[in-house]
Amino acid sequence: MLIWIFGRPQTSKVYHSDDKKVSGFLQLEKADVRWFLSLDKQDLPQQAVQQGNSTFRSIQVDGDELEFSGGFTDLHTRVYEHILEGKGFGITDAQPSIQLAYDIRYAKTLGVTNHEYHPLLKKIDKFNNI
After folding, report:
1. 6, 14, 52, 104: least buried by Cβ within 10 Å?
2. Tens-binned pLDDT, residue by residue, of the chain (130 aa)
3. Where are the extended beta strands (E) located within the chain?
4. pLDDT at position 107, please?
5. How does strand 58-61 pair with strand 21-28?
6. Cβ contacts of residue 88 below 8 Å, gap of 6+?
7. Residues 117, 112, 7, 92, Cα dihedral to 10°
8. Is 16 within 8 Å of 23 (Cβ atoms)?
9. What is the reported pTM?
């Protein structure tokens, strides 16, 4: 989604990666992105927990937050249905996202070295003094 909206990656850095969470920084053509992905329910915001949600998806653009957690339950199924109908995206469309996922997966983890880290990294024990 980020590549479609903000353009191709110019740089990618990974500050933290473990079995449950990964976080880094992307410089895209039209945006700088501090990102944090987690499978740990402890990272859910209180509002999501109170509503009984097991996921939370949010993006902030110029200080304005867009929360888009709902509507993802059958998204993959709908995408696959479109592909089978011949209406899906091709490999050329998906290649930048596939490459970025690969680069992130195999990136050297840098640790927190500057201001580009995502604020949720402060919740991780080894980073809670940053």
Report:
1. 52
2. 899 899 999 999 999 999 999 999 999 999 999 999 999 988 888 888 898 888 888 888 888 888 877 766 777 788 889 888 988 778 888 899 999 999 999 999 988 777 777 877 777 756 655 5
3. 9-17, 21-28, 32-38, 58-61, 64-67
4. 94
5. unpaired
6. 79, 80, 82
7. -130
8. yes
9. 0.79
Alpha helix (H) ranges present in 1-130?
2-6, 46-50, 75-84, 91-105
Compute, in degrees rounded to 10, the torsion defined by CA atoms 16, 38, 68, 6: 20
Two structure tokens written together for 65: 């937050």
Tokens of 103: 């680069």
CB 39 within 8 A of CB 20: yes
Residue 25's CB is within 10 A of a number of other CB atoms, namely 19
| Burial zone of 99 (CB within 10 Å; 0-12 exposed, 13-18 middle, 19+ buried) | middle
